[in-house]
Structure prediction request, 145 residues.
Amino acid sequence: MSQPHHGGCQCGDIRYAITGEPIVTFACHCTICQSQSGSAFGLAMRFHAEDFQISSGQLQSFTRRAESGQVFTNSFCANCGTRIHHHASANPDHLSLKPGTLDDTSWLKPTHHIFARSAQNWFIFPEDAKVFDTAPPNNNWLNGE
Ligand SMILES: [Zn+2]
Ligand SMILES: [Zn+2]
Prediction:
């Protein structure tokens, strides 16, 4: 894909640009992602945090402590509430973008599906996807390994 990638929120206040390529794109079927997205699963695209720039508007954020003890900082448009990204305390150099906010979503393809144990029962996992019942056994996949 050509760079930079541009995107923004639903109301248009927030605009961003990403200069790097994603490390990994995945779908999370956990119930927290279901409630956050108001949908069947959450999509995330990991980037190096330094590759992400806000070009207009200002993000607001809230924090949530996960069962693992990790603190997630979740950032969204203060006006329309569209979630743009989050980052985890354990990995401050990475940022998980909500890739549905990209202007061009035609190239999104999650390679990993995690927390499949709580996936909607009508969901059919793609044959070439890596599927995990919960979180993958180690974090190498989050570094593109
Ligand atoms: Zn907005
Ligand atoms: Zn999740």
Notes: Residues 9-11, 13-14, 77, 79-80, 82 surround zinc ion (ligand 1) (CB under 6 Å). The chain is about 5% helix and 35% strand. Residues 5-143 form a domain with the glutathione-dependent formaldehyde- activating enzyme (gfa) fold (CATH 3.90.1590.10). The mean pLDDT is 94.
